[in-house]
UniProtKB/TrEMBL annotation:
One Gene Ontology biological process: lipid transport
Keywords, comma-separated and alphabetical: Signal
Domain (Bifunctional inhibitor/plant lipid transfer protein/seed storage helical): residue spans on this chain: 38-85
GO molecular function: lipid binding
Residues annotated as signal peptide: 1-34
Transmembrane parts of this sequence: none
Keyword Transport: no
Name this protein carries in UniProt: Bifunctional inhibitor/plant lipid transfer protein/seed storage helical domain-containing protein
InterPro entries, alphabetized: Bifun_inhib/LTP/seed_sf, Bifunc_inhib/LTP/seed_store, Plant_nsLTP
Length: 89
C-alpha cells in the first residue's frame, strides 16, 4: 500500500499530465469546424480516471490512446475550448 505522501505526489503528477494534455490541445493549429462533445471527451478520457486518482504507477495504454485521439479530434479552437469546458465540468 502506498504511503499518503506518495499518493499525493502521484495525484499531483496526474493533474500536471492532464494540464499538459489540455495545453497541447489548445496549442494545436486552428481550423474552423467545431464538433467535439462532452460525451466524446468523457469517452476519450475515461481510461485515465484510475491513474488520475492515484491508482496506478503509470497511465494505461488506453489512456494514452484516448488523449492522442482527443487531440486529433479537437483540431480547432472551438473544439479545444469545448474540450476544456467538458474536462473541467
Amino acid at each position: 500500500m502506498a504511503r499518503p505522501a506518495v499518493v499525493g505526489q502521484q495525484q499531483q503528477v496526474s493533474v500536471v499530465l492532464v494540464a499538459v494534455a489540455l495545453l497541447v490541445l489548445m496549442a494545436a493549429p486552428s481550423v474552423i469546424n467545431a464538433g467535439v462533445t462532452c460525451g466524446q471527451v468523457l469517452s476519450y478520457l475515461t481510461p485515465c480516471i484510475s491513474y488520475a486518482m492515484g491508482r496506478g504507477s503509470e497511465p494505461p495504454a488506453a489512456c494514452c490512446s484516448g488523449v492522442s485521439n482527443l487531440n486529433a479530434a479537437a483540431n480547432n479552437t472551438a473544439d479545444r475550448q469545448a474540450t476544456c469546458k467538458a474536462a473541467s465540468a
